[in-house]
Amino acid sequence: MTKKIVLLPGDGVGPEVVRESRAVLEQVGRTFGHTFEFSEHAIGGAAIDSHDDPLPKSTLDACQAADAVLLGAVGGPKWDDPKRKVRPEQGLLALRRGLGLYANLRPVRVHPKLASASPLKADKVEGVDILFVRELTGGLYFGQPRLREQRDGKVRAVDTLEYTDEEVRRVVRLAFRLAGPRRKRVTSVDKANVLESSRLWRETATEVHKEFADIALEHQLVDSCAMRLITAARSFDVIVTENMFGDILTDEAAVLAGSLGLLPSASLGDGTNGVYEPIHGSAPDIAGKDIANPTGTILSAAMLLRHSLGLTAEAEAVERAVDDVINSGARTADMAGAGGEALSTSAFGQRVIAAI
Amino acid sequence: MTKKIVLLPGDGVGPEVVRESRAVLEQVGRTFGHTFEFSEHAIGGAAIDSHDDPLPKSTLDACQAADAVLLGAVGGPKWDDPKRKVRPEQGLLALRRGLGLYANLRPVRVHPKLASASPLKADKVEGVDILFVRELTGGLYFGQPRLREQRDGKVRAVDTLEYTDEEVRRVVRLAFRLAGPRRKRVTSVDKANVLESSRLWRETATEVHKEFADIALEHQLVDSCAMRLITAARSFDVIVTENMFGDILTDEAAVLAGSLGLLPSASLGDGTNGVYEPIHGSAPDIAGKDIANPTGTILSAAMLLRHSLGLTAEAEAVERAVDDVINSGARTADMAGAGGEALSTSAFGQRVIAAI
Ligand SMILES: CC(C)[C@H](C(=O)O)[C@@H](O)C(=O)O
Ligand SMILES: CC(C)[C@H](C(=O)O)[C@@H](O)C(=O)O
């Protein structure tokens, strides 16, 4: 089959990790007899430099016409002044919103060989396997009004946390569906003891739960969830939560895996198109040095094969290849704490390709 | 000297831990020659039951007339239905707001003898000594509008995250002041790459920093802060942040200490009056069993002596007594993981009193 994949390398280490992932996808194409047509487009800081726009129309158009999008990372000190009107992150947010990608899937699985690299005690991280489903196009990120004004000699800034029952329902429903083939437990995270939007979230989750008799639902407050992710991470299966809580909790949980560089994500909407990206940032301090860990992006490419292209066997082949390479002792610098040989980005990528 | 202290035992284990802390304060009175006049008032679920109001006017009046307030905890399953109009937490929020307590101080110090009880590796928690300064009367907790409405067949819920430069300035200024006698480093946490209110927060912190030439200021995004609290907690000195981020990050950081039951807090405003409470909740599952850890509340009483009554030597005497008792091997059930003898709430309290 022929599929159109848009590559958005972005900033910092983005181009390096996307390059390796493209090579992995090309190998999948050769091995399984598919044709992937790749096209590269600008986003983030790079797009501000080249197009004066963190999400040029040509990029959004290409993404809308594609079967799937693989993204590196956006942002960097060059564009970091909070007073700038145009910032790299706006490109990412506009892309999520423009494609209607309301659900961000972030699996956090601790690889047994890397558990020792975790800052947590081994018995706290062994066997951790959490799937976060973060709402991605609502809440504080997009709510209106968002403004800054002068009033009575004071400066006042406002953001709005808003959700409709519909927005909650669709993402919670997806979380229940995803829990089915897993351990059948959903934890819905909110701050219902303080927020109106959280009370709506909790009620809607409880209502949607009626459609999924075989899945267990529990509610947890965001502050206690932040604790339980450290004290008892194994007790979670699927966690579903609103945009900002999801941003914080997924980054916190990522630490369990030992390195941020390992973790993939998928942003999905109602159709099959999606944006796939590692959860790490652009890491400007190590950009261009060929030492970034491509694993998070390669595993994002595996999620792309599964969720957007329906190629389950191919996705599993990539995931197995990454596992084999890590089991063989290959590491990048960020995972070297767990022992083994530290390879460059490209050498690690080559190992994965060879293992497919 | 004679000082008026209001006790608000609240719900769950609240009455047990407040009882021990009162006994500790009485011992301080005897040893140092002060008279503390105590009066007890209702708050939270208990106040809903007795007064139909989580913060009866009589309670707020007494707190306003007091020199300081010591609180146990509020909330519990009995009052937990998110559809209830009146909830225990509202009492706590109304008290903070009613007394103008805009700064919540939460020190997280890892006791060397308890480091092994932490879910983190010992080398990650040894020497951790963080002072959180959480903004407490602004942001999503109080912003207007907060509402729920029907619109075009959808239900829509809204909370508002709002800050004025004045609100940011006063709490950030306090953080800088508190950093002075410490390691002179302030980390201001925000989400300036997404939120208007965070950009105002960051600019205001940068501006206030000019008044404190000898203190270092760094800005950090809330998601990376959630990671760094696990990977490099020792690198923090004072952390200042807005209300909701503070709620999540302080609970996360509390885990480092090995038990939530150990940690105190102080909520302060412009005057000397303040509310002092442990950071743990009402723990309804262990209420009434005389096994709750009174340490967090006793250390809150020490903060009360220091911040509201100006009794530094007395505060240090209490803190030293707690240290001595823990060093001697005394534990409550929640700390028993670190070895030592598990005492009841009251027996542990007695040991502290004896050590003063
Ligand atoms: C870059 C930033 C806007 C983004 C977010 O907050 O969503 C990032 O932190 C993420 O989690 O993908
Ligand atoms: C009980 C709740 C309203 C409260 C808060 O969120 O502020 C608590 O979690 C805390 O941190 O003191």
TrEMBL record, chains A, B:
Its cofactor is Mn(2+); Mg(2+). The record marks Y141, K191 as: Important for catalysis. Substrate binds at R96, R106, R134, D223. It holds the Pfam family Iso_dh. It is an enzyme of class 1 (oxidoreductase). The keyword Lipoprotein does not apply. Pathway: Amino-acid biosynthesis; L-leucine biosynthesis; L-leucine from 3-methyl-2-oxobutanoate: step 3/4. NAD(+) binds at residues 76-89, 281-293. Its EC number is 1.1.1.85. Mg(2+) binds at D223, D247, D251. Binds 1 Mg(2+) or Mn(2+) ion per subunit. Homodimer. Catalyzes the oxidation of 3-carboxy-2-hydroxy-4-methylpentanoate (3-isopropylmalate) to 3-carboxy-4-methyl-2-oxopentanoate. The product decarboxylates to 4-methyl-2 oxopentanoate. This is 3-isopropylmalate dehydrogenase. It comes from Pendulispora brunnea.
